[in-house]
Write a structure and sequence with these properties.
4 helices, nine-stranded antiparallel sheet, 12 strands, 263 residues
Length: 263
């Protein structure tokens, strides 16, 4: 048995009873071990492509305009030639499928521009209006510069998108591991950044999949503000693997700290 996307755990087993204690032991070993991450201060701000102001044109988000975006930029990368970008872009749908992040019955749409290739994922429709819906991936972009970005819907209910202090780190960690599982970025050091488009309608609250909220505190409503992290460090590639949870916690706390409700 092997975790193909990360290579973290590898062992053999005969029965489920034989496997379970090995998995539990490996989890305890990883939790008690040293952090796999190593950080280094950046000499200058990274040149990131943000999509916060682009809106959702071309994406099937079922009317949702507030999206979480996560960017991974490899350091010391020459980027891609037009031929390399096209080749990798054509492989993106297959790479997305292999990760298991998107169900096989959900269609994927590919698109391209001068500077990037993209794959979009249609949002799952809720059973009825106002039904709570968890966060979900809606787009993957690969830029000519080497940057790999994902956009996803935040958890939301009838009162709007939610920045849940517990759910947000888990969603970001999932996107980080998904990015690593695409097996595109292999450089030793990367820069990470996260942001939320149209954040005025978001609220810091607890997401409950079983029931929608009846009230929400929209401290940012009617105000113009940006909700994004400003990276000043690079980190090792383990941030897309064993160190994803640790990095995601930092990014989530930074986003929430910048929200007007946190003031």
């Amino acid at each position: 048995m092997e975790a193909y996307a990360t290579g973290v755990f590898r062992d053999s087993f005969r029965t489920a009873a034989d496997l379970l204690p090995k998995v539990a032991g490996k989890i305890r070993e990883l939790e008690s071990g040293p952090s796999p991450l190593a950080f280094a201060k950046l000499a200058q701000p990274p040149a990131l492509h943000w999509t916060l102001e682009e809106g959702t044109g071309g994406l099937q988000t079922d009317g949702v305009t507030t999206l979480l975006e996560l960017h991974v930029l490899p350091l010391d990368s020459a980027g891609y030639s037009a031929r390399e970008l096209e080749t990798l872009g054509h492989s993106l749908p297959g790479r997305v499928r292999v990760t298991g992040m998107v169900e096989d019955d959900i269609p994927l749409s590919s698109s391209r521009s001068q500077g990037h290739m993209a794959v979009s994922v249609p949002a799952r429709r809720p059973r009825s209006w106002g039904t709570p819906r968890p966060g979900q991936l809606v787009e993957v972009r690969l830029y000519k510069t080497g940057q790999l970005s994902t956009r996803a819907m935040l958890p939301q209910d009838s009162m709007g998108p939610i920045l849940d202090p517990n759910a947000l780190p888990m969603q970001i960690a999932e996107l980080l591991k998904f990015t690593g599982a695409l097996n595109i970025i292999t450089q030793d050091r990367i820069v990470l950044a996260a942001g939320v488009s149209e954040p005025a309608m978001t609220s810091i609250d607890t997401f409950d999949l079983r029931q929608s909220r009846h009230t929400a505190s929209l401290a940012g409503f009617g105000r113009s503000f940006a909700l994004r992290t400003e990276p000043d460090e690079s980190v090792t590639l383990a941030a897309l693997q064993a160190g994803a949870d640790e990095v995601a916690d930092h990014l989530a706390r930074a986003l929430i700290a910048h929200h007007p409700s946190a003031a």
